[in-house]
Amino acid sequence: MSTVAMITARGLFGRRRALMLLPLPLLLIGLAAICRAYDLEPTQWGAAVIVGLGFAVVLPVVALIVGTGVLGSEVDDGTLVHILTKPLPRRDIILAKFLVAVVATAVTTTIPLFVAGLLAGSARLGAALAVAALVGSLAYTALFLLLSLLTRRPVLLGLVYILIWEGLLGRWVSGTRVLSIEQYVIAIADKIEPTTLLDAKLGVATAAVMSAIFVVVCTVVAINRLGSFSLAGETS
Amino acid sequence: MSETGVIHDIGYQRYTGPRLGRGAAINALYVQGLRAAFGLGRSAKAKIFPWLVAAITLLVAVIIAAVKSQIPDFDFGYVDFDDTLSWLIIFFVAILSPALVSRDIRSGTLPLYFSRPLRAADYVIAKFLAMVTAVWLLLGVPQFIMFLGAAFTTKKGMSGVWNEVQDLVPGWTYSLLWALLFTSIGLLVASLTGKQAFAAGGIVAVFLMTTPVVGVLSVLPSSAANHMAGLASPMTLISGVGAWALGSDIGLDLGRYGPIYGIEAFCLIAACLLLLLARYRKVAAL
Prior knowledge:
Chain B: It comes from Actinoplanes siamensis. Chain A contains 9 helices and no strands.
């Protein structure tokens, strides 16, 4: 299991690939620092930077790239066969890859969000944002890992979820918010440190339970799916 | 033992037919790119996403045309249509550019292309034009449907139709601007990686992460920064050019910096194309 995790981590960060994850967090910290340097009121920029950039873009996009990358790239390259033929339970393969993806996503997102929260308010706000981002990393990564097993185009399907489900529908159609991870993250952060910057539209109990359901259901389905995984030939 | 020095004629022949040259190669690549953009000639799975986006835009256009014919005061122009659907355009670009460019890198067809009389510039131009056409069709056809709806229900006769034409042409120009800018950025990002997944994620990240920058710049305590805030993001950049050149009304105050928006849009497209050319000067066989 540790070998699978190591191979996955190397596939994710090897050569210069880790650098691809850097610009988004750096932009988040940079914007927060600029606003802070100009002594702007956090009410003016907090929502745009923390929610508009942090929770709506950085968290889902990083989770999408990492979550679909850990398994999807092995499916694409065909190297998954080598892991599947080893005498390892499929459960361990999924769990190892999920763990690596969560750690990578969490490290890339919690640190900049903590810094942004620190600059926008207090260390408590930063910690609240970081905890919420951690929950978000778990849920998003589980979902995108599952997507990479269900379809040959996980990234496009993930983009549909981020752009259309959460971005377009989540803003106007209130019913879709129950299935929107972004709203869970906002609700959890708002509960830990109530602030005017965040506008929670869901109860924290709903958010916590639904995040847990996302993680468990997606992981179980992914394990089940990998159990009967067949490698299709190259499709166009 | 047979006689030595016999060379057998196994039937190789020279090609004596017409040789079509660069023009035909560019044309073939353009047509193939345009067809691939909408999944024509590819599997059913490849058609799902482009046609999903196309169906949504067409549906929106039909709804708008219907509402407009019932409520004449409903103010929703051809330019507003592009701005409203900007997220869908991002998604469409994120589908198309990896399909056009990254696939060639991944499947190793690039060295084959360049063993023809095709040059790097030809390849870039063919792909660029194909994608500009595809994105423009995505926006222009629904706009034309809106035009038809308005033209057939107008109550002022031919002058009403002529008024609509005068609205439609700037709308089409505006769509062309969207297509040019988004295509150049999308192709540049996609040409850097052979993995379609990374390319699509990267394109969306580039477009989405610039939007909050505009929000921050527009609250900075400097009027110049506020007026030029729109320069930071491709979407607001195009809106700014539209406001300056076409006089459309957007929620952004340009001040006297309108021409800068035009200059930046032009420079951005030119720079992306030059970088694309530089990218294809050398093609490694992966």
